[in-house]
Amino acid sequence: MTFGEKIRNLRKSKNMNQTQLANSIGVSLRTIRGWEAEGRYPKQHDLYQKLADTLGCDVSYLMTEEESFITEAAEQYGSRGARQAQQILEQAAAMFAGGELTDEDKTAFMDEIQTLYLDSKKRAKKFTPKKYLPKESTQE
């Protein structure tokens, strides 16, 4: 079940419409629609907790390992980082199609890929020209 499907099912079980959910967690209606219909994820980590509190579920139900990785990439590297993270997950999942790896091995592989991605982004940051860094980074 995708993140959007989880949100939609929980929202409907609470007899809430999208507008009510958006107002209760402090986001726009368009944001809720993006999650439910377009396969998007929250950009801020704290939104998962607000959703869990509002919808009466555990935050771990909403945030799988993959969603956590995408959210972390989005928080640190913006929408481009989130797109890259999503692409990595999709390509890695395609590699497993028809394979004979155990679930434990798949999980270990995915964890390692995610760690490698985030580490490489951190290392690459030192090669970023100062004009592209956020203002607070250049004032150190």
Describe this structure in words.
Helices cover 73% and strands 0% of the residues. It contains 8 helices and no strands.
- Overall spatial form: globular
| Poorly predicted spans | none
Radius of gyration, whole Å: 17 Å
Query: What's the mean pLDDT score?
Result: 83
Main structural class: mainly alpha
N-to-C span = 44 Å
**Roughly what fraction of the amino acids lie in strands?**
under 5%
What series of H and E elements makes up the topology? HHHHHHHH
Main pleated-sheet profile = none
Number of helices: 8
Short description:
With 140 residues, this protein is mainly alpha-helical. It is built from eight helices and no strands.
Name the descriptors.
single chain, 140 residues, 73% helix, mainly alpha
